[in-house]
Design goal:
The complex is a heterotrimer of chains A (288), B (285) and C (339).
Chain A: H1 9-44, H2 50-54, H3 69-100, H4 105-118, H5 122-134, H6 145-170, H7 173-181, H8 186-215, H9 218-221, H10 241-249, H11 254-283
Helix pairs in contact in A: 1-11, 3-6, 3-8, 3-10, 4-6, 5-6, 6-8, 7-8, 8-11, 10-11
Chain B: H1 19-22, E1 39-48, E2 51-61, E3 66-70, H2 77-84, E4 94-102, E5 105-106, H3 114-120, E6 121-124, H4 136-146, H5 151-164, H6 168-171, H7 184-197, E7 202-206, H8 214-227, E8 232-236, H9 240-246, E9 249-254, E10 257-263, H10 264-269, H11 274-280
Parallel strand pairs in B: 3-8, 3-9, 6-7, 7-8
Antiparallel strand pairs in B: 1-2, 1-4, 4-5, 9-10
Chain C: H1 20-62, H2 64-69, E1 71-74, E2 79-82, H3 83-114, H4 117-129, H5 135-160, H6 176-200, H7 204-212, H8 217-246, H9 249-254, H10 272-283, H11 287-319, H12 327-336
Helix pairs in contact in C: 1-11, 3-6, 3-8, 4-6, 6-8, 6-12, 7-8, 8-11, 10-11
The chains are: A mainly alpha (288), B alpha/beta (285), C mainly alpha (339).
């Protein structure tokens, strides 16, 4: 009876070992996630209460420091404004790149600069806006919510553009050509055919950009600043969830730290919901 | 000598129960006058998910012979061949049942290491696929390095394989240049050398010449003629003239089943089954 | 009829008499979009110039080289040499790479090559969720959970391994190492995502060739997957580096903000990004201080430009001549994951 040529046992061992190592690295990658979520829930949920969401930070160091109402509102307003600026602009630039600028030097230049923007640290965007809008005293006052929104918009823009470009490129050219061959003007092809086909993907990309913008602190530090009290006015200083957390972490006071955890849990929940929405929307896309 | 074979009920071969203990821990050297293994396929079924690609197929590949498998696209010939070196199961959702034996060793036996099987049954693919980041030398040495060969021993074996593939004279001066720098035909012979280096006993070739020009094809066919003296060779081909040129025996497959298998001459001149005759005379496929 | 072809950027030239109105509308769309794109370019150029102008006072006072490489950041004396910041940036980013890249690449390999098909999706989503946690939350967690829990271990290691260079001495809570560790966690999603895309472009041909030669799974990865993906993975690592260099909030909360060059990895330190976030409040009325901070921002900006440029070039090179995954996909993932 014959036998097959054997395998050195060392090879089998090494294979098993490396499989184990790779599995371990995956676990290691996920452990911090589990830990953070656990701590967030454990330490944050205790702060959640009706008061927490309906009162403002009042700057008290002792006693009740107040809740995060204005922080939430501030984030909603600033991120909302940033979205209004960044999403149409971003999609517009992406449209230029896919409909007119696929080849050609101008298109490549734009693409390159958008690429560059994705790598810029968020605090540098804050600096940009600080120098051009705050120092110069544009719009009257120094710090203002809308200026923070502009900084966020700058951050979100390249994200929207890059993902929009990918999605728009997925729209088959045959669709465009068929419409053009029927005599449709290009603007109509874009509006009626390209955009609607790409819509779920565009929404997904925008949602992810919004999730990113909502979590950013650095661009707001010296544009919108961080305040206590209620503020709805975008032309004044404005609070934000990340800003509130940042300010509270720096204080060595238990109740402020508790508030920070509660705010952090709120913020992470918001972002997770946005991510979930993005995923659900992208399932409805016929392109990906 | 097998006659026209269709589904034949055969008793399941007994699993060699002593195999694990008897298996040797080291790679054994190959005698020069080599005898390839006989490959016995018995009632093989292969699926890709719900798709039934090979149906209850039984045949034998005789040692030191070239057997060609012909048939129209999608008839399952590539799948059959990939079941012999257990590459079929690498496709997600794919499975195979039945028996494939090399002489008396059941390769689907759970105690057999699939890595062993693949060393014993070598494969040459349709599209030449030398490792792009490796030199000519490293490509041939790739399989050898897995088993710990090194130094002078390694160089010897590489040279031997390249000679065996008829490529040595053409590449001896550029052994350290990238493998993908060679021409298509040379790349394919490089892949053959790479396969030969691990001293298999069966060589499977899945349409090895379909990506090559006629001259390169001729060279590979000459090579096959030489190689059969030392190995068992199975070649899948859609080119009937090629089968007629190189194969001792030919098997004709249709929709996953074996229709007929016989001496090549007989298949092409006086086939037993009408479907074979229609295919061979070009009525379809 | 020559409708506007996709390759002709000049739009349609009329064949059978297009209405002048639609031509106008087409032109309008084109110019609006082009204007938008040009605006972005102009904006970036403008920002860069303004940044430089505002940083000028600091460069004038200390010289560009002097500012960047002098080891003395002294606010009280209004003297600003950014070397401690530069060193801190490089050390923490280096630590982040050393810890984060092997983990990320390992996870990417596992998910792509070894994990059973059903768990691939969920695992991928979970690794990407790491990117959804905002920087300030990482900082919060770092300050109140990681630092206290790791401090005794770090002290133990610092004592036991004191014979190694850069190790030994008292371990304060916040330090280079913790900052590097948190940065490592933060760059895992982006490095992993891009690595995954890169290894997905390895042609099945080569993997099959390796397996058919009788390679084990790990040997196949080593023979066919890793060599092919080398430059792509390096690019992914560099994109992670770019991210680590620019990260501000998490770092400033856990590095101790000490404007000195620490002697060991468990010392406190400072980074370019952290100093801007930390000192901007007090610099509001001190023009030199403010200029110095903006100059630090400029140095940071240039650093990230260089690193990211190199990274993108590497990833693009890994894509050249391959048919799969357009670079745009990878870049878009990078952008969305926070690159």
């Amino acid at each position: 009876m014959s036998t097959l040529v054997g395998i050195a046992p060392g090879r089998r061992r090494k294979d098993r070992l490396m499989r184990g190592v790779l599995a371990a690295t995956t676990l290691i990658a996920l452990v911090p996630l589990a830990l953070i979520l656990y701590e967030l829930i454990k330490r944050g949920i205790g702060s959640w209460s009706a008061d927490f969401f309906t009162t403002d930070a009042n700057g008290n160091f002792l006693g009740d420091p107040g809740g995060i109402k204005s922080a939430i509102l501030g984030t909603l307003e600033m991120v909302g404004l940033a979205t209004l600026i960044a999403v149409p602009t971003g999609i517009g630039v992406a449209l230029y790149l896919t409909e007119y600028g696929r080849a050609g030097r101008f298109g490549s230049l734009v693409r390159y600069f958008v690429d560059v923007m994705t790598g810029v640290p968020s605090i540098v965007f804050g600096l940009f806006v600080y120098i051009t809008l705050v120092l110069s005293g544009a719009g009257g006052s120094g710090f203002a919510g809308w200026k923070g929104a502009v900084a966020l918009a700058l951050l979100m823009l390249p994200i929207v553009t890059r993902s929009a470009e990918v999605v728009l490129l997925l729209v088959p050219d045959s669709l465009r050509e068929a419409a053009l061959a029927l005599g449709a003007p290009r603007w109509r092809v874009v509006l009626r055919i390209v955009l609607p086909t790409a819509l779920p993907g565009l929404v997904t990309g925008s949602l992810l950009a919004i999730a990113r913008g909502a979590g950013e602190t650095a661009p707001l530090l010296f544009t919108a600043a961080i305040i206590n009290g209620t503020s709805f006015d975008l032309s004044q200083r404005m609070s934000s969830l990340p800003g509130r957390i940042f300010a509270d972490v720096g204080q060595a006071q238990d109740r402020l730290v508790d508030r920070a955890w509660g705010a952090a849990l709120t913020l992470v929940m918001m972002i997770l919901v946005l991510n979930l929405l993005a995923r659900l929307v992208s399932r409805r896309s016929r392109l990906t | 000598m097998t006659q026209s074979t269709t589904r034949k009920a055969r008793p399941m071969p007994t699993v060699p129960t002593g195999a694990p203990a008897a298996r040797m821990p080291r790679e054994r050297p190959k005698p020069d006058a080599a005898i390839g293994r006989r490959v016995i396929v018995d009632d093989l079924d292969a699926h890709y998910g719900p798709q039934h690609a090979v149906r209850g197929l039984s045949l034998e590949f005789a040692p030191n012979e070239v057997t060609a498998i012909i048939g129209p696209s999608g008839c399952g010939k590539s799948t059959l061949v990939r079941c012999i070196n257990r590459m079929h199961e690498e496709v997600p959702g794919a499975r195979a049942t039945g028996s494939v034996r090399l002489d008396d060793i059941e390769i689907y036996d759970p105690s057999i290491d699939v890595v062993s099987v693949r060393r014993t049954v070598g494969m040459v693919f349709q599209k030449p696929n030398p490792f792009p980041t490796m030199s000519v030398f490293d490509n041939v040495a790739a399989g050898l390095r897995l088993t710990g060969a090194r130094g002078g021993n390694l160089r010897e074996k590489v040279e031997r394989s390249l000679r065996g593939a008829g490529l040595w004279d053409e590449v001896r001066d550029r052994l350290d240049q990238p493998g993908i720098g060679l021409s298509g035909g040379q790349q394919q012979r490089l892949c053959i050398a790479r396969t030969l280096a691990t001293e298999p006993e069966v060589i499977l070739m899945d349409e090895p010449c379909s990506a090559l020009d006629p001259i390169a094809t001729l060279k590979v066919e000459e090579l096959i003629e030489e190689l059969k003296q030392r190995y068992t060779i199975v070649i899948v081909t859609h080119n009937m003239q090629q089968a007629a040129r190189v194969a001792d025996r030919t098997a004709f497959m249709l929709t996953g089943e074996l229709v007929e298998m016989d001496l090549t001459e007989k298949i092409f001149t006086t086939p037993g089954d009408t479907r074979t005759e229609e295919y061979v005379t070009g009525k379809f496929g | 009829m020559e409708a506007g072809s996709l390759t002709d950027p000049r739009g349609s030239r009329s064949g059978l008499g297009r209405l002048p109105l639609t031509q106008l509308q087409d032109r309008a769309l084109r110019w609006v979009l082009k204007g938008l794109a040009a605006l972005i370019l102009a904006l970036i150029a403008f920002f860069f110039i303004r940044l430089y102008i505002e940083a000028q006072p600091a460069f004038a006072k200390f010289g560009v080289f002097g500012f960047t490489f002098t080891n003395n950041w002294d606010v009280s004396r209004n003297f600003y040499g950014a070397l401690p910041l530069l060193v801190g940036t490089i050390v923490t980013a280096g630590l982040a790479l050393a810890i984060g890249v092997p983990v990320a690449v390992g996870a990417a390999l596992f998910v792509s090559e070894l994990a059973p098909r059903q768990v691939r999706g969920p695992l991928t989503i979970m690794v990407e969720l790491l990117a959804a946690v905002p920087s300030v939350v990482y900082g919060l967690w770092g300050v109140f959970v990681l630092i206290p829990k790791l401090q005794p271990i770090e002290q133990f290691l610092s004592d036991k391994l004191a014979f190694l260079p850069f190790v030994g001495g008292h371990v304060p809570g916040p330090n280079y190492f913790i900052a590097g560790l948190i940065l490592a966690i933060m760059i895992v999603p982006i490095v992993s995502a891009i690595t995954r895309e890169v290894i997905a472009t390895v042609p099945a041909d080569h993997k099959e060739a390796a397996l058919a030669l009788g390679a084990t799974r790990w040997e196949m990865i080593r023979m066919a997957v890793l060599p092919y993906s080398r430059s792509g993975i390096t690019g992914a690592a560099m994109l992670g580096l770019g991210r680590a260099i620019g990260e501000t909030i998490a770092v400033t909360l856990v590095i101790g903000n000490a404007p000195t060059i620490g002697k060991q990895i468990f010392d406190q330190g400072y980074t370019l990004a952290a100093v801007i976030a930390n000192e901007f409040g007090e610099a509001a009325n001190n023009p030199t201080h403010r200029a110095a901070l903006i100059a630090a921002g400029l140095v940071l900006f240039v650093l990230t430009l260089v690193v990211n440029g190199l990274a993108r070039w590497l990833v693009r090179r890994a894509e050249r001549g391959k048919v799969a995954a357009p670079v745009a996909d990878i870049q878009a993932n990078a952008a969305a994951a926070g690159g």
